[in-house]
Design goal:
heterodimer; A: 566 residues; alpha/beta; TIM Barrel; 8-stranded parallel beta sheet; 17 helices; 24 strands; globular; B: 431 residues; Rossmann fold; Dimethylsulfoxide Reductase, domain 2; 9-stranded mixed beta sheet; 5-stranded parallel beta sheet; 16 helices
C-alpha cells in the first residue's frame, strides 16, 4: 500500500464543483480517497493551483504518420535534443518529438492522459507500440473510419446496424477508443487523386456522400453506446470559404446523448474560413461559435495556430497535397488500403503573413466567442497548429486582453479588418481554463466515470500542481507568470506517484491504454459475416487472423465494455 | 500439425499466409506451403549452433548463455566507442532493447539500411515520400514500374501478392489490365514479363528520370534522340503510360540506391512521382530487403528521432550518415567493440571494415554460423523470429505484423538475450 497526502492545495476541480478551495488531497494505491493514515508521504502544496491531471483530447503523438514525420525530418529532431539524465532517456525533436520527448514534455506541463487523434486500423499495432514508450500518460486512440469500404457499402445499403457492427468489430480488433472521421469520403477519393469538396459530393464508386457517412457514423456510435461521440475532422479543411461546409456538417447533428455531446468537431480553426480565395481570406469564427452556442450537442476544440515552425500531419491526404502545392516543401503521403490515408508536410506560420495571422486570430476567437468553455477545448491539433509546448502561451492569451493586444500589434497590419478579435474583451478565468484543459476533455471523451479529469474519491490520482498562487496573480496583467506557471508543474502526480518535479521527470512510469469493446449479439459478429470475411480474403494484404492487435501490446489494458443495441 | 497464416521472416514482403506443417513428435518443420523458395528454406532451417561459443586461439569453446551474456555486457561496458549493428533480422522488441543499450553505453547503433536503402532515407529526408500500403496498389494500380529491382529473384511473391498477378478490386482482369514497366541495366527475369522494358546504360538512371520529368512537364522538345541508351520514342511512350494511368506505382531497388548518384537518383524518382501526382495518382516505395529492416528504422525513429546511424557518444542522439554509419566507423578504425544482431556484415562490408572487425572483440547473436562468425569472439545462438520466437515486424510498406512462433525450442529469443545483457549493464553502472 502506498499513500500520499497533498496538503494545502488550492484546488480547482470543475467536475466536482470545486472552484478554488484550499484542501488536502488523499491518495492511496493510485486512487483519490477520503483519507489516508498518518504514515502517508506528505507534499505541502502551499496554496499552489492544483487541478486534475491535464487531458489532451486531440493530439498526434504516436503511430505511422507521426513516426514518418520524425523519419523525414532530421532537422526537426536536431531542434530539440536532451541527453539521458536520471530516469529520463535521451529525446529528440521540436514539433514531432520522439515518444519519450512527448511524454516528458507533456508530463512537465501536468498532462497525464492523451488521445492520439488518428489511428489507421491496419497500422494500429504501430500506435500501440509507441504508446508503450509514452510512459507517463495514459493513452487512447481515435480509430479512422472515413474511407472504410465495408462501412460505405453498408451505408449505401441503408443498414446502420451493420455500420455499427463493423465499427464494433474493428474497435475491438485494433484496441481503439473512438470513431474518427477525417475528411469523410475524401480519403477514399484521394486514392484516385481526387477529393470531395463538401458534404454533398458523392464518393467515387461507392456513391455515398460525406453527409451520409457522418450521419450513419453518429447513429452507429450511439447504438454502440460508446463513451466518446463521433470525432469529426470536417471536409474541406484549410480552404477559403470552408465555414459553410463546417456549418452544414454541424447542422447534420441531432442531440442523441444526455451525458455528452453527439459530435466532437476537432481543430475547428482550420474549418472557420471566409472569403472566395486567399486574397479575401477572412475569419468566420462568429457564425461557427454562434451555431455551437445554440447546439449543446456539439463540442469542438480550437486547433490554435501559433507562429513558428511546425509539422502538419493528418489522415487528410488530399489536403496535405494542396498544402504542398502552396508551400513547395517536402511532401509525404501514405494511403491505407480499404480504410483511409495520411499526409505530412513541414510548415512555418509567420506573423508577417496575412493568412497565418488570420488563422492565429480565429482559434482564439472560437474559444472567446463560445459561451461555455465545456464546448470549446484547448488544443493546437498538436503539432498541426503548433507543438503542444505552446499551450501555456495560449492560456496566457485567453486570460489576458492586454497580452492579446500586444501580440496583435505584431501580426500582419491588415489582420484587423479581417477578424473580430480586437473587439473581444473577454478574459477567461482559472476555472474556465481548468474546464478547457481537463474537465471538458474528460466529459467530452466520456472518461470521467473511469476516474479521469476530476479529484473526487475513487478518481485516478492524476494531479497537476502548478507553482501559481491564483489569489496573488492577476492573469490579465501578469500573463508571463501564468505562462511560466503552466509550463512547469511543481509536481505532476500520475497514478498516485510523483512523476515530474520542477521540469524533471523522476520515474520511468508505465502507461495504461483505454480502449472499448462493444458487446454485440452473435448475429452482428462481423468476424463470422461471410461478406466481411471475403473482403479480407480478397482485398486486404493482411490475413484476417493476423489483423487484430494482441493484448500483450498494451502494457496496462483498460477495456471499457459497452452494452449495445445490436 | 498445420500452423495457418504464419508470417514469413525472410524478405520485406512479410507474407502472412504461410502454412507450416510441424511434425509433433520431433517439433520440426517438415512442410511449408504458399512460401517462395527463399521463405520455405528459412522455415525448414538448417544446422544451428547448439550453444554459445567463444574463440580460444584457433578453436571454439562451448560456453553457457550466462557466460556469453556476461562477456558481451562487459565488452560493451569496457568499450570507448562500441558499435551495435545489424537489427534488420530480428523483431522490434529486441531492437528496442538495443536502442536502450546503445544509449546506456553511449555507443553507435546502426542498421543494415546504411549499406542498402540508406540513400533512400536521405532522399526522403530531402523531398518526402508519396507512398501507400501494398493493398492500395493491389486493388487499384494499372501501371506498375520496377526500377532497379528484380522481384522475381529477390522478392518472389511481390508480383503475385501485391502487383501484377494479384486480384484487384478495381481491375476486371488484373493480369491483363495492368501494364508493367521494368527499368534496369540488364535483362533480368522480371524484365521478361514487362510490357515495356527500358534498358538504361549503367549509371544513366538519373538522366533517364530527368528526361521523364521533363516530358511530364511538357518539355518534350528538349529531349535528345537518346538518353543513357534509351530512345526518345521510348521515353515518350513510358511518360504517356504514366500520365494515362489511373493509378501508378513505382518500386525501386538497390539498382537505384547503390550506383553513383545514390540518394540523388532516389530523389529524382520521388520528384518524378510527385510531379505525376499533379496529373493522376502515383506512388513510390523502396523494395526493402530483410523482413524487418523497416521495423528497425521505425523503432530507431520513435526512440531516437532517426532511422539509422545514431551516435550516442555525447549523450544526445546524433545523426550524420557518412560519419556515424557502421561502415565509416569501422573504416576509420574508431570502433573498439561490436555487437552484431540479425545480420551478416562480413558478407557485405568492404574489406577494410572487415579487417578492423578482425582486430576488435565482436559478439554476434545469430542462430547459424555465417561469414561474420569467423570474426567473432563470441557467438550466441538465438531462436529464429517467426519460427521459434515471436515478435513484431514491419512490412516494406510500414504495416506492422506480429510474427508467430510455429515451433518450440530451448533457444532464447534475441529479446531475451539482449534484455539479460542490458540488465547486467544497468547493474554494473549502478555500482
Amino acid at each position: 500500500m502506498t499513500e500520499l497526502l497533498v496538503k494545502n492545495a488550492h484546488v480547482i476541480d470543475p467536475l466536482s464543483g470545486i472552484n478554488g478551495e484550499t484542501m488536502d488531497i488523499a491518495i492511496r494505491d493510485g486512487k483519490i480517497v477520503e483519507e489516508v493514515s498518518a504514515a502517508a508521504d506528505v507534499i505541502d502544496a502551499r496554496g499552489m493551483l492544483t487541478m486534475p491531471g491535464g487531458i489532451d483530447s486531440h493530439t498526434h503523438i504516436c503511430g505511422t504518420k507521426v513516426n514518418f514525420g520524425r523519419y523525414m525530418s532530421p532537422e526537426d529532431m536536431r531542434a530539440g535534443r536532451t541527453p539521458r539524465r536520471g530516469p529520463m532517456h535521451a529525446t529528440s525533436g521540436y514539433s514531432v518529438p520522439t515518444t519519450y520527448g512527448n511524454s516528458y514534455r507533456y508530463s512537465v506541463m501536468g498532462y497525464t492522459t492523451l488521445l492520439e487523434g488518428a489511428m489507421a486500423p491496419l497500422e494500429a499495432r504501430h500506435t500501440h507500440e509507441e504508446f508503450a514508450y509514452t510512459p507517463l500518460q495514459d493513452t487512447m486512440a481515435n480509430t479512422l473510419f472515413d474511407g472504410n469500404w465495408s462501412i460505405m457499402e453498408a451505408i449505401r445499403d441503408g443498414d446502420v446496424k451493420r455500420v455499427a457492427a463493423i465499427i464494433a468489430w474493428m474497435l475491438t480488433a485494433v484496441k481503439g477508443f473512438a470513431v474518427k472521421l477525417t475528411n469523410p469520403g475524401g480519403t477514399e477519393a484521394w486514392q484516385w487523386g481526387k477529393n470531395v469538396s463538401c458534404i454533398r459530393d458523392p464518393v467515387p464508386y461507392f456513391e455515398v456522400t460525406p453527409a451520409e457517412i457522418i450521419r450513419s457514423a453518429i447513429e452507429a456510435n450511439e447504438l454502440l453506446h460508446l463513451p466518446h461521440s463521433v470525432h469529426l475532422h470536417c471536409n474541406n479543411l484549410g480552404t477559403p470559404g470552408n465555414y459553410t461546409c463546417t456549418l452544414g456538417s454541424m447542422g447534420l447533428v441531432p442531440d442523441l446523448n444526455p451525458k455528452r455531446q453527439t459530435l466532437y468537431a476537432t481543430h475547428v480553426q482550420f474549418h472557420a474560413y471566409g472569403g472566395s480565395g486567399w486574397k479575401d481570406f477572412s475569419s468566420k469564427s462568429e457564425p461557427i461559435a454562434n451555431l455551437v452556442n445554440m447546439r449543446p450537442q456539439i463540442v469542438m476544440d480550437m486547433g490554435q495556430v501559433m507562429f513558428g515552425r511546425t509539422t502538419t500531419m493528418t489522415a487528410d491526404g488530399p489536403m496535405e497535397f494542396n498544402l504542398y502545392r502552396l508551400h513547395h516543401e517536402k511532401w509525404s503521403n501514405h494511403d491505407v488500403e480499404l480504410e483511409t490515408g495520411s499526409g505530412i508536410i513541414p510548415v512555418i506560420y509567420r506573423r508577417k503573413n496575412l493568412v497565418n495571422s488570420i488563422m492565429w486570430a480565429i482559434g482564439l476567437e472560437l474559444a472567446l466567442l463560445t459561451k461555455s468553455p465545456w464546448q470549446c477545448l484547448l488544443t493546437t491539433d498538436n503539432p498541426n497548429g503548433a507543438p503542444f509546448v505552446k499551450y501555456p502561451e495560449i492560456i496566457g492569451l485567453l486570460m489576458s486582453r492586454r497580452y492579446r493586444d500586444a501580440e496583435f500589434a505584431k501580426v500582419h497590419p491588415d489582420t484587423g479588418s479581417r477578424v473580430p478579435l480586437p473587439a473581444i474583451d473577454r478574459e477567461m478565468d482559472w476555472y474556465e481554463i481548468a474546464v478547457m484543459t481537463r474537465a471538458g476533455q474528460a466529459r467530452a471523451l466520456g472518461i470521467q466515470d473511469l476516474g479521469k479529469g476530476h479529484l473526487a474519491p475513487g478518481a485516478d490520482a492524476d494531479v497537476a500542481i502548478y507553482p501559481i498562487r491564483i489569489d496573488e496573480v492577476d492573469p490579465s496583467a501578469e500573463f508571463q507568470k501564468v505562462i511560466d506557471g503552466f509550463s512547469r508543474t511543481e509536481y505532476t502526480i500520475k497514478r498516485g506517484r510523483v512523476v515530474a518535479r520542477r521540469g524533471e521527470c523522476v520515474v520511468h512510469g508505465s502507461n495504461a491504454t483505454i480502449w472499448v469493446r462493444p458487446k454485440v449479439s452473435e448475429n452482428y459478429d462481423m468476424g463470422k459475416d461471410p461478406d466481411f470475411v471475403e473482403k479480407f480474403d480478397r482485398y486486404y494484404t493482411v490475413r484476417m487472423s493476423n489483423y487484430p492487435v494482441q493484448e500483450n501490446y498494451l502494457s496496462r489494458s483498460r477495456c471499457i465494455e459497452t452494452e449495445t443495441e445490436l | 500439425m498445420i500452423v495457418k497464416d504464419a508470417v514469413c521472416p525472410f524478405c520485406g514482403c512479410l507474407c502472412d499466409d504461410i502454412e507450416v506443417e510441424v511434425e509433433v513428435e520431433s517439433g520440426r518443420v517438415v512442410g511449408v506451403t504458399n512460401a517462395c523458395d527463399l521463405g520455405a528454406t528459412k522455415f525448414l532451417g538448417g544446422e544451428r549452433l547448439k550453444t554459445p561459443i567463444r574463440r580460444e586461439g584457433k578453436t571454439w569453446k562451448e560456453i553457457s548463455y550466462d557466460e556469453a551474456i556476461r562477456y558481451a555486457a562487459e565488452m560493451l561496458l569496457d568499450a570507448e566507442r562500441p558499435l551495435l549493428y545489424g537489427w534488420s533480422g530480428t523483431h522490434g522488441e529486441a531492437q528496442c532493447v538495443g536502442v536502450h543499450m546503445a544509449e546506456l553505453v553511449r555507443g553507435v547503433i546502426d542498421n543494415t539500411s546504411s549499406v542498402c536503402h540508406g540513400p533512400s532515407v536521405l532522399a526522403i529526408q530531402e523531398v518526402g515520400h508519396p507512398g501507400c500500403t501494398l493493398g492500395v496498389v493491389k486493388n487499384r494500380a494499372d501501371v506498375v514500374i520496377y526500377w532497379g529491382s528484380n522481384p522475381i529473384d529477390a522478392h518472389p511473391r511481390h508480383l503475385s501478392r501485391y502487383t501484377c498477378y494479384a486480384e484487384g478490386f478495381f481491375l476486371e482482369n488484373s493480369f491483363r489490365d495492368r501494364k508493367v514497366i521494368v527499368v534496369d541495366v540488364r535483362k533480368t527475369r522480371t524484365a521478361n514479363i514487362a510490357d515495356e522494358f527500358v534498358m538504361v546504360r549503367p549509371g544513366g538512371d538519373y538522366a533517364v528520370l530527368s528526361a521523364l520529368r521533363a516530358i511530364v512537364r511538357g518539355k518534350t522538345d528538349t529531349i535528345p534522340p537518346t538518353v543513357a541508351g534509351v530512345t526518345r520514342d521510348q521515353l515518350i511512350r513510358v511518360a504517356d503510360l504514366c500520365l494515362n494511368a489511373k493509378f501508378g506505382a513505382v518500386y525501386f531497388g538497390l539498382g537505384l540506391t547503390m550506383i553513383p548518384g545514390k540518394n540523388k537518383n532516389v530523389r529524382n524518382a520521388i520528384e518524378l512521382v510527385t510531379e505525376l501526382n499533379r496529373h493522376t495518382k502515383f506512388t513510390i516505395s523502396a523494395m526493402r530487403g530483410h523482413y524487418n529492416v523497416y521495423g528497425s528504422n521505425e523503432v530507431n525513429t520513435w526512440m531516437t528521432g532517426y532511422p539509422f546511424a545514431i551516435d550516442f557518444s555525447r549523450g544526445i542522439a546524433f545523426y550524420n550518415p557518412g560519419e556515424t554509419t557502421a561502415v565509416d566507423i569501422l573504416a576509420r578504425k574508431e570502433c573498439d567493440a561490436a555487437l552484431i544482431v540479425g545480420s551478416d556484415p562480413a558478407a557485405h562490408f568492404p574489406r577494410k571494415c572487415i579487417e578492423h572487425l578482425a582486430e576488435i572483440p565482436v559478439v554476434q547473436l545469430d542462430p547459424y554460423p555465417n561469414a561474420t562468425t569467423a570474426f567473432c569472439s563470441v557467438q550466441i545462438p538465438v531462436a529464429v523470429t517467426g519460427v521459434d520466437a515471436e515478435g513484431t515486424a514491419y512490412r516494406m510498406d510500414g504495416v506492422p505484423i506480429r510474427t508467430k512462433k510455429v515451433v518450440s525450442s530451448d533457444y532464447l529469443s534475441d529479446e531475451d538475450v539482449l534484455t539479460r545483457m542490458y540488465v547486467l549493464m544497468q547493474e554494473a553502472l549502478k555500482r
